[in-house]
Amino acid sequence: MTQTIALEFENNSQAQLLFGELHGNLSYLEDKLGVSISDRGNALSISGTKDGVKNTKFILESLYKKLEDKALENISPSHIDTELRFIKSPELRKRKKMPDQENNNKLAIKTRVKTIAPRSPAQADYLKNIAKHDMVFGLGPAGTGKTYLAVAAGVDMFLKGEVDRLIFCRPAVEAGENLGFLPGDMREKIDPYIRPIYDALHDMMPWDFMMKRMEAGDIEIAPLAFMRGRTLANSFVLLDEAQNSTCAQMKMFLTRMGENSRIVITGDISQTDLPKGVKSGLNEAVEILHGIPDIHFTEFTAQDVIRHSLVQKIVSAYDKAKD
Hints:
The protein is about 45% helix and about 15% strand. It has about 325 residues and is α/β, with parallel strands linked by helices. It is globular and about 65 Å long.
């Protein structure tokens, strides 16, 4: 049975951002939910099945509120996909209302380039843990925002003066490919391993500002092996792709923690690139440290994937194949 409802938004500029260029977001919703949406200025008429109309209204109102709260600066189909996952996933619905819908202005991170807000309950929990606790593990599949949000949280603390340095590191392990001898100086040799960190930073800082801070030593990006023998004080430290650390490397890294430091460890236990028979330091750390009250863990699932919608389906398919 078809039903029709009317929906109106007060702010003209925010309504246009919500609707998208050439009303592309409305067309995307029509395709995804099988509804028909007609507009007149800021007013919409939504027709379709009861569930289709209800879900369309929920998504539009949710995204409009994010624009009002300045948790988002624009709306794209990927934001709509995030809302759709929240509606359709029993696991996410059990978590009830997304925390950032209740308090977006506290959870959203405003960098010099863009505003970054959590897009799933797990992401909101992750950011809250990073803000409150000295050591946090972010565990889960690719595409869930583990690295990106950690970099954003670190940049936010650095720009606010809460830490003096940003230190990002990754194990220099080849992902199943023999890269051979890499030419150039040390920075050029390690760039292929740490490029995702540069990409995230570039999203959040003007390039010239970032390079100046790197030259001054305030921002450091290095392989995990370079952390040996150091004490990392007054710093935000991220160990990314931690599943590729050995047990000895992980213990070494965790014991580098100094005064007034925040450490975040991210990784996907299911995707280690270590040689066959070598135990992942991340796996061991999770087993050993899970009971310590001051160390917090945020676990992401395929439902939290925020890349292309196919990535979520791919992760779910691989998970089912294991069972």
